[in-house]
Amino acid sequence: MRQAIIGGSLLVAGLICVVLGLLPVQALIALAARVLPVLAFVLGLTIVAELAAAAGVFDGLADLAARVGHGRTAGLWLAVVVLAVASTVFLSIDTTAVLLTPIVITLARRVGLPPMPFALTTVWLANTASLLLPVSNLTNLLAVGRIGLNGPIAFAGLMAGAAIVCIVVPCLILIVIFRRTLVGRYEPPDRRVPVDRPFFVIAAGVLIALVIALTAGVTVWIAALVAAAILVAVAAVRAPSELQVSRIPWQPLLLAAGLFIVVETSHATGVTEPLVSALRGGVGPAGLLGLGGAGALAANAIDNLPAYLVLEPAAAGAPLRYAALLVGVNAGCLITPWASLATLLWHARLRAEGVELSWGRYMALGCVVAPLTVAAAVGALLLTR
Question: Domain extents for the chain?
């Protein structure tokens, strides 16, 4: 509800700015043309992921991870890493933070292991693994049109080196933190049978088809809405009780829309120009590290989405600078609780599952992993350009 109140307040403030002439109507129309497809994608993908989870697809993937681990704790953790990376890359940051987290916690408990290593893995990788494809993060979807790359494969080519580093560095730190916990064995659990087999099969098929479409260059918002419409129609027949209004992410969408308008107004009125001017630079080490570091600092101060929007003009049309900014706002938002909406949602799921992690400890760990990850990823950009 807090998101809805903040989002509604930002929308009202934005509309007042339009009425007062601070944000020209033409600028508002151009903004709508840019962001409405992005919000439509988020809507469609969230519904698909929610219904696929309701059908048992993610439970099936968790059971597969338990079998792949072959009874070794380290093997199970590596399988969860792969699952979290794949979920983030192809189904976005929020899917991993919100849907995968309770599933891996349940999995850890089923095999008698402490859930914290798996829970912290999902939230770190939900953020840091969100660099490879446009659909991995809302910030990427906003950036890809500005960068001028032709399709998701070209975007992946630009971000591949940094994306790999942003997965490896947090995982190495997790291994150090949980080096004792990850040693040992477990008894693989029995495989769970889906409650409704046809619903499970159709949901899995739709999810696979959507992933293929998103990586093949199909217009992302159309693909997501079509997939959502198919699953809603199937659920109406097979599992009508799963068609709940709560599955519609209207609060995050309202918050994002409000942020878009307010930040666009700040650009139109010149409020952000001094900061943007100070960060303009080249594609050398100083320029990229400065922009990436500024993105990380801004994300931890005001959340990664508005941080990207505020600093976007500083990228100045250079693909490498856009890449460095994305590294900063995506992989650097691991310190404060509000640095990423996914982190707040993750913590809520954590508490709902009865797992306690203080924000103090989370922030302390983030102060280690975030700077190292951002610096190493920007270094990868420099090496692979």
Answer: 22-384
pTM score: 0.90
Query: Tens digits of per-residue pLDDT, 147-174?
Result: 988 789 999 999 999 999 999 999 999 9
For residue 185, the cross-strand partners are 72
CB atoms within 10 A of CB 364: 11
User: Among candidates 198, 169, 382, 154, which has minimal Cα distance to 290?
Assistant: 382
- Do residues 169 and 373 lie in contact, with contact meaning Cβ atoms separated by under 8 Å? yes
Q: Which residue has the higher pLDDT, 322 or 272?
A: 322
φ, ψ of residue 72 in degrees (nearest 5): -105, 130
Beta-carbon neighbour count of residue 189 at 10 Å? 15
Cα–Cα distance measured from residue 246 to residue 267, given in angstroms and rounded to the nearest whole number: 34
For residue range 94-145, list pLDDT tens digits in order. 899 988 999 999 999 999 999 999 999 999 999 999 999 999 999 999 999 8
